[in-house]
Amino acid sequence: MITVVATGGFDPIHSGHIEYLKEASCCGVRLIVGVNSDEWLERKKGRYFMPYEERAAIVEALSCVDKVISFDDKDGSAIHCLEQVKLFYPNDTIVFVNGGDRTSDNIPEMAVEGIEFQFGIGGQSKKNSSSWILKEWSQPTVQRAWGTYTVLDTNGTWQVKELSFDAGKSLSDQRHSHRSEHWHVVSGSILMELDYGMKRTEAKVYWPGQSIDIPKGVWHKATNVGTEAAKVIEVWLGDIFDENDIERRD
What we know:
The chain has helices at residues 15-25, 38-45, 52-60, 79-88, 130-138; strands at residues 2-8, 30-35, 67-69, 93-97, 115-118, 141-144, 147-154, 158-165, 173-175, 179-187, 190-197, 200-206, 211-214, 219-224, 230-238, 247-249. By secondary structure, it is of the alpha/beta class.
């Protein structure tokens, strides 16, 4: 009999995982899934979203899965999972399936004797990766005509955002009544035009590592003058943080 082994954190489980496990189940008669520990997720991502018991229960409830096991993953590999399955089913052909970009050149499990390997299960797409889902849940990216922004952190008197300007795109010429802004360019090149009033204006291109201070009430217009996306870390300081705190002019 062919027993197939798949492993993963499944935190949280999503459609890409289900596609992976369904395809894995077609590679043999029995599908065993090793679910990684909470500690493994903490080492990999800093913390876990769903505890092991909940992740394991959801995976085991899938019709394509025959059994879920825990295993020692302190070394970051699935070697101990494969050794367990060999003990459970000593007369079976054991096939370890791998998804994504894993190959025979980059997995330590190749050291386990008597295991067959199958790669590319579930396809190469990472659009539904767990990390992407959690990031979009906690820090959603907002689309704008000039690019995107993501709120990284916020408190009562400050907010930190990541701005990404598409090549050649500009913010509208604008000013704010309730906040000042500090911009730090991390990639690309940004032309900042400032109008302080009383015929005092500035126009300067800023490069990675350079910063711009925009006082409250000052007109400003930012343009990506490069050929690639430009990224800026923007800090708001003030008493009201509202996207509607904006006055525009042509």
